[in-house]
Structure formats: C-alpha cells, structure tokens
C-alpha cells in the first residue's frame, strides 16, 4: 500500500511538481496544527478549553500552499549553485577498499571531500538565509491573516523569529545535512516535510502563544 502510494506520489511530482508539493505541504501543515490544537486542549484546565479553530488550520494550509513553490525553487537553486557532479559514495566497504587501485581510492576520496564541501555550502545557505527569512514570512503572514495589521506583524516577527530560529538549530542541521547529501532533488521538500509535521505542530503552538488570547483571530 505504502509502496504504491510512493510510486503514485513520485509520478505526480515528476509531472506536476509544484501542485504535488503544494498539496503535500498543505496536508502536513493541517495535520501539524490539528495536533497542536488537540494537545493544547488536553493541557488546559477543564472549562477553559477552546473549541477547535478551523480558521486557524485554514490559515496554515493557505500559507503552506503559497510558500511551497518557494521551497521547490530554493532547492533547485542550491542544486545548481552547489552541484555535486558525481554521485558520491560516502562509505566504501573494507573489501572494496582492498580491491580498488590506489589511484581509484584517491580519486574517490577527493570526490567525497568535494561533495561534502558542496553539502556544507548548501547547508550554510539554508540555515543562514532561507530559514530566518522563512520564519519571518511565516509569523508575519499569520499575523496579517489574523487581522493584526502591519504593526502586529512586526511585533510578532520581532518577538518570535529569533527564539524559533535558535530552537530549529538543535535539529535542522542534522535533517538538512541528510537531505542535501543523500536525498534526490525531487524528494527533498517532502523529506523535510515528514519532519516538518512535528515542526509545524511546534510552530502552530508558538504562533498561537505569540498571538495571545486577547488578540482577535480573523477568518
């Protein structure tokens, strides 16, 4: 069942990359917000629980749908700007090392070092450029869609972007290193999105806390 779905998804992503990724991101963001709202309702005291906010989930889905093409183009840009010209063999078994000529081993080591350098450059660009900008866009968009206006968006960005970014640095470098080093381009956005299901839950909670109970939630 899962293998059939994976093949179907791959065919759709190859034929319609932007639509397929947008749909995938919208579904995952909706799941993340649903988990966040469910967890929040379990943690509050009896009588204080808020009803499920379908508009909040809708805002998450809308944002994910609109921002997903940026993620696709970003990964394509990194692939072109920092290409790995040969498919790097990151690990070479002991038997293969013994059989391989010395010149081949030296060449393969150089290929791996070159590939590792390109992965490091991709990772640095992603962590230093894309992620901070993405968090700023996320919190600003959420505030605007909630009816907070430009001033509210500025306040939320100022209050939440830096702590959220610092939290992401505890796990994002590991995930993105694997993503850039081993995952084919077509799967990189959904690969990250599998982990983003949990990260979206966290972002939903952070954004909700940043909005505050006194602030209105526009539809």
TrEMBL record:
In terms of superkingdom, the source organism counts as Eukaryota
On whether Transmembrane is a keyword of this UniProt record, the answer is yes
Output the Gene Ontology cellular-component terms: membrane; mitochondrion
- Report the membrane topology from the UniProt record: Multi-pass membrane protein
- What coarse category fits the chief subcellular location reported for this protein? membrane
- To which species is this protein native? Coemansia javaensis
Compartment list: Membrane
Q: What is this protein called?
A: Uncharacterized protein
PANTHER family for this protein? PEROXISOMAL MEMBRANE PROTEIN 2, PXMP2 MPV17, VACUOLAR MEMBRANE PROTEIN YOR292C
- Similarity comment text for this entry: Belongs to the peroxisomal membrane protein PXMP2/4 family.
Entry keyword set: Membrane, Transmembrane, Transmembrane helix
